[in-house]
């Protein structure tokens, strides 16, 4: 299986949200571990561009890379931010297959003790609308919530995401 793994944000003018921790630091920690967990049985395509003139250009480059490599799934990794009371995990998807992956990932992360905010309609998200394959955007937990940040462990989070992806792959065979 060919997986497009998008480590969200990551460009000089777009480091993501800032809370108790920074979104970019959590994305990088979890993303690197996730690559290691998935690469043994999958072809991993990292889609974060090296440079982009705008946010839209960055998003389009990510989609173009996944589309041109004929990936089977596109997964964009993010962490949420809002008021300090907001907490938990949610995953956005559009297609039926995307919802299957999203549901498995949400369930696995929720088992770590995070509030299950469910699978949400991601039709408003550029990277989900502009990829040819099933796509999802993972919001692992809230960087603005003390309980989520106290609970956060990059190894556990990457393991939960990997198990969610691999469980759907196994069921599709």
List keywords for this structure.
six-stranded mixed sheet, globular, 6 strands, 173 residues, single chain, alpha/beta, Aminopeptidase
Q: State the shape.
A: globular
For the termini, the CA-CA separation is 11 Å
**How are the strands ordered across the major sheet?**
2-1-3-6-4-5
The chain-level structural class is: alpha/beta
Helical proportion, percent range: 40-55%
Number of helices: 6
The arrangement of helices and strands along the chain is: EHEHEEHEHEHH
3D structure, described in words:
It is built from 6 helices and 6 strands; from the N terminus they run βαβαββαβαβαα. By secondary structure, the protein is of the alpha/beta class. It has one domain: 3-Layer(aba) Sandwich (Aminopeptidase). The protein has a 6-stranded mixed beta sheet with strand order 2-1-3-6-4-5, with helices on both faces. Strand 4, helix 3 and strand 5 (116-121) form a beta-alpha-beta unit. Helix 1 (23-38) crosses helix 6.
Topology:
Layout: E1 2-7, H1 23-38, E2 43-46, H2 55-68, E3 73-80, E4 89-93, H3 96-110, E5 116-121, H4 126-129, E6 135-142, H5 146-151, H6 154-172
Parallel strand pairs: 1-2, 1-3, 3-6, 4-5
Antiparallel strand pairs: 4-6
Helix pairs in contact: 1-6, 3-6
